[in-house]
Amino acid sequence: ISKAWPKNPQTLVSLSDIALRISDPALASQLASDAIRMDPLSSKARVLKAIALETQLKFRDAIPYRVSVLKLQPWGTTNMVALIKDYLKIGQQDKALQVQLLIARIEPNGEDANAAAILLRR
Questions:
Q1: Which residues, other chains included, contact 46 with Cβ-Cβ below 8 Å and sequence gap of 6+?
Q2: Under a CB-based contact definition with an 8 Å cutoff, are residues 32 and 45 in contact?
Q3: Which of 40, 60, 80, 113 gets the most CB atoms within 10 Å of its CB?
Q4: Measured distance CA(4)–CA(59) in Å, rounded
Q5: What sign has the CA pseudo-torsion 19, 4, 12, 29?
Q6: Comparing C-alpha atoms, which of 32, 72, 77, 70 is closest to residue 52?
Q7: In sequence order, which residues have a C-beta less than 8 Å from that of residue 48 and are 6 or more positions away?
Q8: pTM, whole model, 2 decimals?
Q9: 35, 13 in Cβ contact below 8 A?
Q10: In 2-118, which ranges are E strands?
């Protein structure tokens, strides 16, 4: 696909976002992958890749992208909540709990901390 699309990774990120909005997660995933190849530090491309995989119910495949975003943006609690959801979908409650504790350290009374606590109360 990268041969047919623009060589600018930001354009690919935008196209990936559009593909998700028109319910084409496979195309969104490929565009996000192309953007990541061009810009390995693009957290937005990695988030879009994870969302595309999650939309296809490929939670286990989405986790490495969420974890890589966590490394690029260690304060990104919204990504952490999505990572908790992925871990819970594949039955890894212990890892979900570790992420919840990290959120609680970053923003103990924040909206994402509350969301994480609710997810883990199940």
A1: 32, 36, 65, 66, 68, 69, 72
A2: yes
A3: 80
A4: 28
A5: positive
A6: 32
A7: 13, 16, 17, 20, 28, 31, 32, 35
A8: 0.91
A9: yes
A10: none
- Tokens 């959120």, located at residue: 103
- Helix or strand run (H / E) with residue 74: none
Listed in order, strand segments (DSSP E) in 44-105 are none
Only one residue has tokens 């939309």, namely 55
Identify residue 30 by its one-letter amino acid code: Q
User: pLDDT (tens digit, 0 to 9) for every residue of the chain, 122 residues total?
Assistant: 545 556 789 999 999 999 999 999 999 999 999 999 999 999 999 999 999 999 999 999 999 999 999 999 999 999 999 999 999 999 999 999 999 999 999 999 999 999 999 999 95
Structure tokens at 110: 């924040």
Q: What is the distance between the alpha carbons of residues 84 and 32, in angstroms, rounded to a whole number?
A: 22
